[in-house]
Specification:
Low-confidence stretches: none
Number of domains: 2
Distance between the termini: 73 Å
Order of helices and strands: EEHHEEEHHHHH
Radius of gyration: 32 Å
Mean pLDDT: 92
Oligomer: single chain
Strand order of the largest sheet: 2-1-3
Number of strands: 5
Largest sheet: 3 strands, antiparallel
Structural class: alpha+beta
């Protein structure tokens, strides 16, 4: 397929269209359907415009899950223009924390049932207050007002009031991981920094 290419000093401009030519050269009279002689006269412009008809080439093999394929500027090989291709890496999708998924899974988890049992059997109001703080922080996150620092503190506060078996901690960690929260929150607070 024939196409226009402008030989600018900074490098060829491709693709180049009649509309671009009208913008770049407003003084130039351009027919609605330029004939061959008119197109040939564009070679005298500065910078010149040439008509090329690249030879079709096979696109390279690629993995569409990691790259996208696009047609690149044709290349000239031994005086003949050839179709060229470029592969562009698809950027990774951002990891979005799924607070709703975590909350829904937490409420039906065995670990949460154990939390509720220990809260209800506690002899002091501390565990119930800590659970209320956690639920409040989660509700903020569900409503688009996530405060990672406050939510992290509420997790540590609640777990410090309870004695959960290892399997419960494993389940909670799995809930965090499955909902893209494991990089934001940890179940165990960091230990004291060693003294210099």
């Amino acid at each position: 397929m024939k196409t226009l290419l402008r030989l600018a000093p900074s490098g060829p401009i491709w693709p180049y269209s009649i509309a671009q030519l009208r913008r770049d050269e407003p003084w130039l009279s351009i027919s609605a359907a330029p004939h061959e002689g008119e197109v040939a006269s564009w070679l005298a412009l500065d910078p010149p415009i040439v008509v090329i008809e690249p030879v079709a080439t096979e696109p390279p093999a690629y993995d569409p899950t990691t790259h996208s394929l696009a047609e690149a500027m044709p290349i000239e090989v031994n005086g003949q223009w050839q179709q060229a291709w470029r592969l562009e890496e698809i950027p990774p999708q951002p990891i979005v924390p799924n607070y709703q998924g975590f909350y829904d899974a937490l409420l039906v988890s065995e670990a949460y049932n154990l939390v509720l049992q220990q809260v209800m059997n506690a002899n002091t109001p501390g565990p119930a207050a800590a659970l209320a703080v956690l639920i409040s922080a989660l509700q903020d996150a569900l409503n688009g007002r996530a405060n990672p620092s406050a939510l992290q503190t509420s997790i540590w506060l609640l777990l410090s009031q309870l004695t959960l078996p290892p399997e419960a901690a494993v389940e909670l960690q799995s809930l965090l991981s499955n909902n893209n929260l494991a990089d934001l929150y940890v179940l165990t607070p960091p230990g004291p920094e060693p003294e210099p």
